[in-house]
Amino acid sequence: MSLRPMIVVMIVMAGAGQADPLPSWNDTDAKARITEFVARVTDVDGDSYVSPAERIAVFDNDGTLWVEQPVYTQLLFAVNRVAELAREDPSILTSDALKAAAAGDIKGVFAQGRDGLFEVISASHSGISVDEFTEVVQGWMQTARHPDTGRAFDDMTYQPMLELLRYLRDEGFTTYIVSGGSIHFMRAFADAAYNIPPQQVIGTILNSSYQVIDGDPVVMKDPGLFFNDDKEGKPIAIDTRIGRRPIFAAGNSDGDFQMLEWTTAGEGARFGMIVHHTDAEREYAYDRDSSIGGLERGLDEAGDRGWLLVDMAEDWKTIWSSGE
Amino acid sequence: MSLRPMIVVMIVMAGAGQADPLPSWNDTDAKARITEFVARVTDVDGDSYVSPAERIAVFDNDGTLWVEQPVYTQLLFAVNRVAELAREDPSILTSDALKAAAAGDIKGVFAQGRDGLFEVISASHSGISVDEFTEVVQGWMQTARHPDTGRAFDDMTYQPMLELLRYLRDEGFTTYIVSGGSIHFMRAFADAAYNIPPQQVIGTILNSSYQVIDGDPVVMKDPGLFFNDDKEGKPIAIDTRIGRRPIFAAGNSDGDFQMLEWTTAGEGARFGMIVHHTDAEREYAYDRDSSIGGLERGLDEAGDRGWLLVDMAEDWKTIWSSGE
Ligand SMILES: [Ca+2]
Ligand SMILES: [Ca+2]
To answer: Is residue A302 in a domain?
Structure first.
């Protein structure tokens, strides 16, 4: 027996330690702050060590993990589905918002305000069992294309964020989605797109009911809102669902403010991060005045609160998971 | 180098395989059905194999994992806490139910019906942050004693069920509590008592709000019911929280009927189990006529539905986790 096998093992391990977990991030301050934080909370001998059970990381979805411009993907789905349902039964178009949706007129839907918008979401997400709805969303995702790029939506997830999710999981974190998007819509693709299983998807919840139909018990999706997972709703949902205050939170709009505020106010090492959309060339540039993903308070207070403002144009080498 | 090390390893493994995972269960049909089911769904080469991600097991709490007679533990806590709060501020006793609670008169609380009962729960579970509430419950559990036995409540969990939880986890299952008990009350002891972490505790949810108090963001517990995790509520909560239909469900009352119905109606191998309280000597004997843990439909239909009726007196060698 010689020492050679042991030496080989040590070289392999050193190589693994040096591999860049975030290759699509430029070598800017943003990347350094993330990796420093992870090193601190995983250092068993350090003052900031956090046990794996407490390594909870929460991520907003739209505009944080995938594209949300020029219009939320879920709203595109909703509009398409209302049109499809109306072809079978035109009598469902009982309002101006629903008529606009059936005509593919998204501006017309927005013109009806929050209530009109919710009417379209509600009509397109109900009257169907959860299992059937999941299949409908998955079928839609296979053929739907982004209005500006013509690409599939699962090609328009952010590669640097996929790397961040994987990196955190490799370092013992549990990663959750905490989004204003509706829970059954997101679950239909979250496992495939992000490696986030259904029990780690937290979102807006529409009504549902338990029914036994011809002897077959199902959970049915019903009209109406049960819980709005936005703003103050995010910490409340995290408490209800996870029961632990996260140590890492990432968002992109003021809808994430309370989630970041609550996360970073906890004791010990905490990390708050805002994806700032600054890249009009490769993606979109928007913040204060955007009706989608509006970011004002977060932009004003991130510095004082020690939250990382990720500058997409500066900090991200690649944007899209498709590589394009 | 000799073959000896390899032989030692094989003997150790064979020994582990023969160890009884359920030593507090008698060698009756109940135990055999459980271990056969687990063997089937974990046999990679069998037709009934279920991947670890899909091995979801859900357990009711009161009367399934711990004692619920002569009165729900949570109600004892609530009555104690109302009395404590009333000593500080007697003006909170605005109803007959609350006055009865403050006097320790549980029958008087019941006399005020469901509304009175909920009033006591609501008053004793609100006006406090989640973190503080958790400490209050944990403090109470240390000193509170069961009215009949004088023992601590965490000594009155069921040893056979603790073994079943551990056995399932060892076989790759994820174990959840799905109970009518309220979520923050159960979380205060579920990790210590059952090794079930907060994100796997599903229960009734009372209102809460996000508040920033003197610069300190907290989730506050508020009066009122948000979600009742009983009967039809159980499958709905499982869908919302876990997003997968369980393959194993255990309960003890008709409040668990829909959870078992939905679980066992799924495709492939499924297991439904009802803990039937038949042991007046070592525990309590009750079913159809009990106002706590009433079991009628489940008792009538368990046979036809293939659900296991666990006969506590016959099937359990030991009852209590304390060994007494
Ligand atoms: Ca967003
Ligand atoms: Ca029960």
So the answer is: yes
Give me the pLDDT at residue B5, please.
Answer: 41
ipTM of the prediction: 0.93
User: Tell me, what's the pLDDT at A14?
Assistant: 43
Q: In chain A, positions 250-279, which contact chain B (CB-CB < 8 Å)?
A: 258, 261-262, 265
User: What's the sign of the alpha-carbon dihedral B290, B296, B298, B299?
Assistant: positive
Q: Which residues of chain A have pLDDT under 50?
A: 1-16
In this structure, what CATH number is given to the domain that contains residue A41?
A: 3.40.50.1000
| Chain B residue with the nearest C-alpha to that of A233 | B210
**Nearest chain A residue (CA) to B176:** A199
B197 interfacial to chain A (CB closer than 8 Å): yes
What's residue A2's pLDDT? 40
Of B130, B239, B261, the CB nearest to A239: B130
Residue B127: inside a domain? yes
pLDDT of residue B323: 82
pLDDT at B15: 45
What is the extent of the structural domain holding A50? 19-70+154-315
